Amino acid sequence: MFETLTKAPADKILALMGEFAADPRKEKIDLGVGVYKDEAGVTAIMTSVTKAEQRILANAKTKTYVGISGNKGFNAAVRELVLADTVDAKRVRLLQAPGGTGALAVLMELLYRAKPDATLWLSNPTWPNHAPMAKHAGFKLDSYPYFDAKTRAVDFPAMLAALDKLGPNDIVLLHGCCHNPTGANLTPAQWDQVAASLARTGAFPLIDLAYLGFGDGLEPDAYGTRAVVKAVPESVIAFSGSKNFGLYRERIGAAIVIARDEAQADVANSQLMNIARVTYSQPPDHGAEIIRTILEDKDLRAEWEAELATMRNRMIRLREKLSEAIKAKSNAADFDFIAEHRGMFSLLGLPGEAVEKLKTDGGVYMIGDSRINVAGIPEDRVGDLASAILGTMK
Ligand code: PMP
Q1: CB-CB contact of 364 with 388 (8 Å)
Q2: Who lines ligand 1 at CB under 6 A?
Q3: ipTM score here?
Q4: Under 8 Å between Cβ of 283 and 98
Q5: Domain 11-44+301-391 has what CATH class?
Q6: pLDDT of 144-187, one tens digit each?
Q7: What is the pLDDT of residue 33?
């Protein structure tokens, strides 16, 4: 059977994790894989999550199936968290999905069923799984300009000019907030322009919302998604609960469809349910029940929001410290952009050799494109890290 196959490409990020684990140096620093880490370097379970789990365990009576759309309370709570009252709920349908990746997968298949000839546009650069997933769904791919390697900010005029040329046969994948891998994001005014462009051209937005609450806060981070959804008749969102609830391995996310009207929403939803039915049938419940429990309870929700704010503020503080440390050591190097970026990542814009040198000489691990996970920066060694980064530029 398998003689007809060759090995599939290895996941570069997972391979780097293995290399880091095998590195015997005590002073090594892991800025690679995209999981949040606290000051002890641990991806801890949030206290609000543990409390929700205790309640669930104490009250659960059954493990029977939850249904193809998943946990109804979770779906309603996520709709409110992401969209608030942006659109009439009658036009919105949610399907609980196995992680943000699962949500993206079912949505891409839904869009492919609807428009197999469409071109799916990705930001340049984007999360390395987007292109393989879109290809797997069957789409033709293209990319729109996003990151300006010189300023390390969004090249907004170039992005907008590219979007303005699109039409109804195009699907645009947008990062709702906290762009991965660059950390460079649109301002609210720029989001308004993107939303107006999509409304004008008829290009269809597919919004990947994997880091809600990791940037500037739950409300500011939802701004772009809501601006787009409000401006256009139809859109879809892939929500992930992996990062903001720290539920990575529970595989919890949601596919959100906003349709033109109630009847179209029902059609799209029936197709989504059909896609789920023929792939994994029904989603796992535990992560969904945790999120439902937290979001439906005033006190637990406040506790979760406070924990999320602590994580977010820590990442912002580490950004400021690293850019200040680099500035203190070198007037020539401009790394202020690290403090401007938001979310878990920044793309440093270092060449491949520098990334390699940081790893071999300094034990500093980052993704090959020079993406760093700011949550991995050890707060007491920011100076060492700044020196190591500057050392590659000599
Ligand atoms: N989209 C982006 C941009 C991401 O960075 C990630 C996680 N790395 C995901 C989607 C999916 O996350 P998960 O499937 O773990 O929820």
Answers
A1: yes
A2: 34, 99-101, 127, 175, 180, 208, 210, 240, 242, 248, 253
A3: 0.99
A4: yes
A5: alpha beta
A6: 999 999 999 999 999 999 999 999 999 999 999 999 999 999 99
A7: 87
CATH number of 65-296: 3.40.640.10
Q: How confident is the model at residue 15 (pLDDT cuts 50, 70, 90)?
A: confident
DSSP 118: P
Centroid of ligand 1 to alpha carbon of 103 (angstroms):
10
Residue type for 203, please? A
DSSP-derived letter for residue 243 is: T
Mutate to test the pocket of ligand 1, among 78, 107, 177, 208 (most ligand atoms within 8 A of CB): 208
Return the residue whose CA atom lies nearest to atom 4 of ligand 1: 210
Does residue 127 carry a catalytic annotation? yes
From the candidates 30, 155, 170, 208, which is the catalytic residue? 208
Q: What is the pTM of this model?
A: 0.97
Rounded Cα distance, 362 and 224, in Å: 38
Ligand 1 centre and the CA of 100: distance in Å?
5
- Placement of tokens 């390699």 in the chain: 356
Give the domain ranges of the chain: 11-44+301-391, 65-296
Which one-letter DSSP state was computed for residue 72?
H
Q: What is the pLDDT of residues 179-236, one digit of tens each?
A: 999 999 999 999 999 999 999 999 999 999 999 999 999 999 999 999 999 999 999 9
Region 100-124: mean pLDDT is 98
Q: What is the pLDDT of residue 334?
A: 86
User: Which one from 127, 191, 221, 339 is the annotated catalytic residue?
Assistant: 127
Cα separation values, 357 from 71, 211, 327, Å: 48, 30, 21
